Amino acid sequence: MRDELRGLIAQLRARAEISDPEDWKTDGSGEGFAAPRVGLACAPAPTPAPESPPAAALETLAEAAALSSLRAEVLACRACPLGFQRLNPAFGVGFEDAEVMFIGEGPGFEEDRQGEPFVGKAGQLLDNILGAIRLSRKSVYLANIVKCHPMVDPSDPGRRGNDRPPTPEEMAACRRFLDAQIAIVKPRFLVALGGVAAKVMIGTETGIMKLRGRWHEYNPGEIPLLPTFHPAFLLRSPEHKRDVWEDMKDLRRRLDADEI
Ligand code: SF4
C-alpha cells in the first residue's frame, strides 16, 4: 500500500518537472536574475524521506490525492466561456506541501499549449527569480486565478499576443479552484504576481505600483501575501527587476526567520 502511495506522489511530482532545465539556465531573458550554475544555490526539491513519519506521509498523500481530484474537475470544467475556448487548462504545478504559493492572473499562449502555468519566457524568468532566493519550481506551488486562457479573439488561439486579462465574471467562476488549491497546499506565504492577481487576492482597487513592497493578507489574519510585478511585465519593463529583487529578498527573510 505504501509503495502505491509513493508511486502516486512520484507521478504527480513527475508532472511538475520542467521539460528541460537547460532551457532556462542558458536563456538570456532572466538577465538580472542569474540562474544557479550548480545545484548549491538552488534548494533541491523536498522529497519524502523513506523514514517519514506515517502521519506526515499520509498527509502528503491526502494532499496529492486532493489536488489530483481537483485537477480532474478543472479538466472537465465548462463553468465559464473560457472552458470552450482553451486548448488545455493550466491547473497548477509544484510541491503539494509548498511553503510559498505564487499566483498569477491566468494562462497565456504558451500555458494554453503546455497546460502548465508560467512557462515560456516569463516562466523562465520566474524560474531564475526563484533560483535567486534558493527556491525552485519544484519547491513552491504555481497557480493562476483562472485556469483557462482568456483570449481577445477566441477564434484565433494560434496567434501570439492574443491574450487579455480575465473578466470579473470569469475570475468569480474559477475562484473556487484556487481557494481549494490554497486550502490543500496550506502555504505559509502567498505571492501575487501582477496587478490583477494582487487586487483579487487582497480585495482592493489599489494598483500594483502602490501594493508591491508591502505585506498584505489573504483572508485577513490567515496567510501573509506579498504582491510584486508579474515576470511578463518585467520582460517589457526590465527596469523594475530591482523592485522584484527587493520583494524576493523580503520573502527570503520571512522564510528564514520563520525557520529559526
Ligand atoms: S476558467 Fe475556470 S471556471 Fe472557466 S472553464 Fe476554465 S476552469 Fe472552469
Describe this structure in words.
The chain has a six-stranded mixed sheet with strand order 1-3-2-4-6-5, with helices on both faces. A hairpin with a 4-residue loop joins strand 5 and strand 6 (223-228). It has one domain (2-18, 52-259): Uracil-DNA glycosylase-like domain (Uracil-DNA Glycosylase, subunit E, 3-Layer(aba) Sandwich), CATH 3.40.470.10. Helix 1 (2-16) crosses helix 3 and helix 3 (54-76) packs antiparallel against helix 7 (168-185). 38% of the residues are buried. The protein is built from eleven helices and six strands. Residues 12-30 and 35-42 have low confidence and may be disordered. The protein is globular, with a radius of gyration of 18 Å. It is an alpha/beta fold and 260 residues long. The chain binds iron/sulfur cluster (SF4). Iron/sulfur cluster is lined by residues 74, 77-80, 82-83, 89, 146-148, 170, 173-174.
CATH topology: Uracil-DNA Glycosylase, subunit E
Beta-strand proportion: 5-15%
Round the Cα radius of gyration to an integer and report it. 18 Å
In total, how many domains does the architecture comprise?
Answer: 1
The rounded distance between the terminal residues' Cα atoms is: 36 Å
Q: Main sheet: which strands, in order across?
A: 1-3-2-4-6-5
Uncertain ranges:
12-30, 35-42
Q: How many strands, what sense, and barrel or not for the largest sheet? A: 6 strands, mixed
